[in-house]
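User: Batch of two.

Assistant: Item 1 of 2:
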Amino acid sequence: MRRNTRLADIVITLLLLLTQAAAVMAADPLAGFTVWPGKTTDDVKKVWTVTFSTPLAQNSVNSSSIYVTNTNNLRVSSKLTLASDKCSVTVAPISSYKSGEYRLYITGGIKSPEGVKLVEQVMMPFTVSDPLGGQVPTSPNEKPSYILDVQSTVGEYVTNFTVNTDIGVYRVDVNSTKLSYLGDNKFSGGIFGLSAGDIVTVKGYDNSNRLLETYKYVVN
């Protein structure tokens, strides 16, 4: 399994009209948002770059003026970084996105150094489709060689794991729990107290109890 994660930013260009009349038009936050065409990415750490036609006031770039929400309309913690030329802002998730639908909002809280607000508030929907189903390899080359597949099923009390491995793996642990060997290079076991979105550590060992690989997995 191989993750092809690229940080190829999609640039969103917005215009600031530097006229006093335009500033008045943009002052009403209830005026609504213009919905832009949606985007799709398989990068769970996707960084969006929002580019403006004029420099921004640094103090206007915050979690109230630019933010991301999920399908439940809850805000997703993001890191906003204003470029040195103050004409673009990158929006990066603090934690990996889960597969699903999201919305990126750019509001009238954005201002130029002269205090002129953004004329048009914009909402861009985007979809995150994780081709690895939440599996995040942590090997140096991000290509797992021994832990081939991890699956989880979240129950009311116990989350069950099934791990398929290379033939050289003799033992698999999820966090501190040793999984049972089922045969045919497959291991299984359950862990109490986990929820969807939790990150667990999967480790594979050889017959000498030597650690072969460590793998991060997002429970889903």
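Item 2 of 2:
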Amino acid sequence: MGTDKCLLNIGSAPLWKCQLALLKSITDCVGVVAAERPAWLDESIEWVPDSRTGAGPAAGLLGALTWCEASGASHLILLAVDLPKISKESLRNLVRGVRPGAGIVPRSGQRLEPLCAIYPCEAADSLGSGLAEGRNRLQDLVGQLVEERLMVERVLSPAEELGFFNLNTPGDLSSLQHAP
């Protein structure tokens, strides 16, 4: 992308502010997960460090689960900053599908959507074991959580899949900015 996606303006605000506002419309307990505290992050917003370096998003998820558990919550809503079309209704649909001790992960075709999912804090042990074994591919780790019944899959409708548009390239940004 050539720039920090968090700082891209979507409408009149940087993407990180849009996603933070969306999460705050669902829950009061909100933090920003990153390997290092971002320079743009206001001091009033909690920074949640990755659990370890070099393990990608899986380390961020484990750090967030540890933080969530310490806060006394039972589940973690994870929302990646580069999913700008996710709606409040999409998040609410996920929340409605959560059960004690189990989270929910959307499935789009053959792929899970682990960066917009709800995880039970109990998933931390399994995720930590996977990372300790050198496995850090989130698709595989979350697939394991599904096998362990810590997560259930929710198959997205074709209309819902449009909300899971991932902002990865300048072309993606251009199409987002020129969409009706």
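The mean pLDDT is 91.
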